[in-house]
Design goal:
There is one protein chain. By secondary structure, this protein is an all-alpha fold. It is 65% helix and 3% strand. A hairpin with a 2-residue loop joins strand 1 and strand 2. Helix 3 packs antiparallel against helix 4. The relative contact order is 0.05.
């Protein structure tokens, strides 16, 4: 610590940068250029415009992430569909137990036969959903990477 008027000086506050940026430039845009600049800045998802400009000038890589609302909506609906599918499986197990507990063997078998037919139809629907999901994945999600 250095002496200042006979008293030791405390080192408080922010440490000085080793290479501070002291040189500044000014740039002017017309309305079209400014809107284009703001569009590119928003796509970069950077927080500071000065950092964005610096990265553009010195050709640093800029990450641009595009969020497709349709894909997000599809994903949310597919997630909801999956939870409903799980609920159907739980209900299926409960129905089978109830049939065997509350009906005779013959009556339970007849009702299970009808349930089995409906289950086969449901499996076909799920296969179609799986195929559509794979097509969507190939067409829209693989191309964006």
């Amino acid at each position: 610590m250095s002496e200042h008027n006979g008293k030791p000086q405390k080192k408080t506050g922010r440490r000085p940068k080793t290479d501070p940026a002291k040189i500044r430039y000014t740039i002017s845009f017309n309305e079209v250029e400014h809107s284009r600049f703001l569009e590119l800045f928003d796509q970069s998802e950077m927080k500071v415009k000065a950092h964005f400009i610096t990265s553009c000038i010195f050709e640093k890589t800029i990450k641009t992430i595009k969020v497709d609302k349709g894909t997000v909506d599809f994903y949310m609906r597919l997630t909801s569909f999956h939870s409903q599918f799980r609920a159907v499986g739980v209900n299926y197990n409960q129905i089978v137990k109830l049939l065997y507990n509350n009906f005779s063997e013959k009556k339970a078998a007849a009702l299970l036969y009808k349930l089995e037919k409906q289950t086969i139809e449901m499996v076909d629907i799920f296969k179609k959903v799986k195929k559509l999901t794979e097509e969507f994945d190939e067409k829209y999600l693989k191309n964006s990477e």
